[in-house]
Here is the input.
Amino acid sequence: MRIVTSEQMREYDRYVIEQVGLPGAVLMENAGAAVAQVIAQTHGALAGAPVALFCGGGNNGGDGFVVARRLALLGAHPTVYLFGKEESLKADAATHLQVLRRMGLPVVAGADPHQLVIDPNTALAVDALLGTGSKGAPREPIRGAIVTMNRLACPIYAVDIPSGIDSDTGAVPAEAVRATHTITLACPKIGLFLFPAADYVGQLHVSDIGFCWDALELPSTGRLFSPQTSSVAATICGPRHPNANKGHFGHVAVLAGSQGMVGAPALVARAAQRAGAGLVTVLTPRCIQPVLAAKLDEQMTLPLADGEGALNEEALPDILRFAQKATLFCIGPGLTTHPQTVALVQHLLGVLHKPIVLDADGLNALAQNPECLRDRPEEAPPLILTPHPGEAARLLGTTTQEIESDRVGAVKLLASRFRAIALLKGRYTLIATPDGTLFVNTTGNPGMATGGSGDSLTGILGGILAQVLAQERNKTDIRDRMDVLVEAVALATYLHGRAGDLACQTLGEAALTAGDIIHHLPMAFDKLLVEPSPRSLHLQTRRLHEETAV
Here is the structure.
């Protein structure tokens, strides 16, 4: 499913109205009907229920007029408050307002929010004040209407976006509606997945308005990952050939661990195996190998040269020898930033011409000397970078605050600068390729903000990619299959979050651990191809405490 900016959505509407011939009044009717349907599905009985509809003077207000009529047909008692001049309405909105009047439904035109008296028994309110084209702080009387709406003790349903948020950047410059539900129309808007706006969305519903928008040959900002339409998901999660062996599903090499950091490589290894890799070997400092081997059953270990509890450059020949049989490498968790280890990782990034999932201290080593990639030929498989905002800031030489203020720009810059598939972790993890392709992940919950969660993601990435790479190796040069690789990364990210969601349902957020995510991965696989598509999926957003990545 496409994700769009406000301008892209306007272009989509313009194309469908002018080129396809679907009138704007019909699109408005479909939009209002879709919103009313979600209200009926989520709110329950509406017969006799007082409903307040806060409408602006644009097309968003026109959608609200349709919602009012549709709710009246379901037995509700709607009252429409129009904050603006009736004579300024555009033609389509004016048409639907006239229908309301002819039905005898109450309409308060030119409403003054500061004098407004709302029925205290109001069952729900509908926010149809501002649409996606609104920028900057809302002006009066819209500002006052937003303040009034937020004071209501009832659920609030926002039409397309909560009024007051920036649908492109996720900024909230002043007052904004704190919606209980947001029904976004046709295509999700990118700002709904960016903070702080995402805190105002409530439960997000994606509703169609009568056209196959994905069929349009027009640009979009990105896509929501959908396992139902993913060929990689169908291949990975489908039945395996009866004559398959472990060699058919790839060999993941995990370069990780140091003195006092034995858990990280163990989590990566377990997650990679649970994600379906045929073989997993942990390459780790000699000083911790016995302890690590005792923690692992299905995964192998290889002790490497170390010093002061961490890997050193004397390990390089053994790593390169092992690389001949590895499908890909996961590098970084628990390695430390000891100078000798950093030098080893930087050397490897130039000479190890294998797909590499780079995480944690692997990213920190790259950040210290990005020039280490100059020896990595352009024909080498792409890196997969997995930073949280703090690591992304170090890679780009900026601050965490700057990264968070423009997450889309940051992940695209990471991908282009390092010729990598970049994955920027967060509530809505973003995935980008050097050519600007963007995926937004919608799974996951705050319970996953726990030590080792990133290690489990690294392992799942390794396990999924190993299978894809093993199956693609006899078809074509994998360097030409960026579409397959980025889809595999999106699938792994989706599964990681979905496993966390399933764990949360059983254990709650506070008690969730990284091991629980790995434990619930089989259930995430099992549900992957039978869950509803994103168009009917309700994407739960939630307010988070302010965090600073370190």
Q: What stands out?
A: Residues 482-507 form the longest helix (26 residues). The longest strand covers residues 279-285. The chain has two domains: 2-220, 228-530.
